Amino acid sequence: MSENSGKYTENFKYFFKMDFINEIKNWLELKIRLWTKKDEVVFKQGEIWWCSLGFNLGEEIFGKGEKFTANSFMGLPLTTHGKNGSWYVEIETKGFKRWALLNQARILDQKRLTNKIDSISKVDFEKVKKRFIEFYSS
Q1: CA separation for the pair 99, 88 (Å, rounded)
Q2: Which of 23, 42, 58, 95 has the most CB atoms at less than 10 Å from its CB?
Q3: Tens of pLDDT along the chain (138 residues)?
Q4: Alpha helices in 36-121, H assignment, sequence order
Q5: Contact status, residue 111 vs residue 37, Cβ threshold 8 Å
Q6: Residues 47/119, Cβ–Cβ less than 8 Å
Q7: All structural domains of the chain
Q8: Radius of gyration over every alpha carbon of the chain, rounded to an integer in angstroms
C-alpha cells in the first residue's frame, strides 16, 4: 500500500462524513418547515401527490406516538419505468402509464404532501387495492 493511499482513504472518510452531516442538516431544516406548516392539507384516496420524504415526521408509524389518524395515510411511490412482477401495478394518469410499487408502501404524515398532481381512475384504484391485498396476503 502506498503512502498516499492512506491519505486518500482519510480524505474519502472526511468527505463522506461531511456529505452525511450536510444531508442530515438539510433534512432537519426541511423537517422543521414541514412540522411547523400551518395549513391543513386535504387529501383523498386515489390522489397522486409530491411528497417530501426523509426521516420520520409527525404521526408516522415509527414516530414517537403510536397514532394512526386522519393526518396519516398509506402511500405508494410511482415510477414511469415499465416494470413487471407481482409488486408492480400499471395505472394511467394524465394519459401516461405509471407503475405503483406495492413493495414500497409507507405510512406518511399529511405534512409531507406538497403538491397535488392528479387522481387515478376508480378502475385503477380498485386494481391497485386488489393487487395490494393479494401481494401482502401471500
Answers
A1: 6
A2: 58
A3: 455 555 555 655 555 666 777 777 877 776 777 667 666 778 899 999 998 877 666 666 554 555 556 678 899 999 999 989 999 999 999 999 999 999 999 888 888 888 999 999 999 999 999 999 999 997
A4: none
A5: yes
A6: yes
A7: 37-137 (2.30.30.110)
A8: 20
User: Sign of dihedral through CA atoms 125, 82, 111, 47?
Assistant: negative
| Cell 406495492 belongs to residue | 102
Q: Three cell numbers at 34?
A: 414541514
Closest CA to 88 of 138, 126, 123, 132: 132
Report d(CA 132, CA 14) in Å as an integer. Answer: 43
Q: Pull the grid cell for residue 61.
A: 408509524
